[in-house]
Please model this.
Amino acid sequence: MEQTGSALCTLGFLVPHTSAGAALDPLAALAGLGTVALQIGYLPTLYGAFNRRESLVTMLDSRAGVPSWGPELLARTHYGLGSGVSAVAQLPELFEAWEHWSADVSESHTTYVPLIWFRSPRPLSSWVTAQLAILDAAALYLALLPDESDLIQARLCLRGGFTCLGNVARAIGIPIPLDADPSIGISLSYNDFVEAIDRLRRVDYPIERPLEDAWADFLGWRVNYEAAAYALALTIDAPPALWSGPRRHEVEQIAPLRPRTARTGKPTTGPMPQGSP
Model:
């Protein structure tokens, strides 16, 4: 043991007295240098994958609140982030960006598994809850606006997203089936869904279907990714965002923080409005 440690760390404080020890020294020294070289070589790769992952997560904070929540993303997008101009038409472009993000994360986090536990530098942000918010937003977008002409990108985003979450979950041994069983249903309740729709109605988000029909479609999409998202959020102890499942310790889910807005040069005489995104 001492001989191996001396050679592995290239300290050379022991001199081999046998031919076997002399043969072991260069092998152990090469193994030590190789380990250090591999660590140095992989660090930029790991940081590059982490940086790509966190860039879109950071951008989502202003779109979907902190912690991120799917209905909040739709509400703020329709409200135009306070400008009064709806930006719902830009959602397909956002869904496309997250489709590419899902492919990147699926490849990098199954190859370099420790990345799964790399936390966001912002305490209430997480790649899992961000992905979940995007998928919920895409599922709601499809369920509430079935007559929109550009729905294919939302579907692609959903398929890429639940494939990503399933692959990452299976990479760490979580038994997520390749094909979800619709008969199992989801943990999210219909009342939670109705409360989210009320949030959308407060900003006049276009809702073109009866809630019962929209709920059936939303359930059909969410069953594909809820189990994997909840399991990953539990495993990495992600911030307790709305609609993100249980945690190891009993904690209350945190609604997205909505900063108060004020116009410069105009004094306020009463409380700031709470309805703004």
Q: What stands out?
A: The two ends are 63 Å apart (CA to CA).
